[in-house]
Amino acid sequence: MSFSDEIENKAKDLGGKTKEAAGKLAGDDELRAEGKADQLEAGIDKAVGKVKEAVEGAVKTVEDKLGGKR
Question: What is the mean pLDDT of residues 32-51?
Answer without folding.
Answer: 96
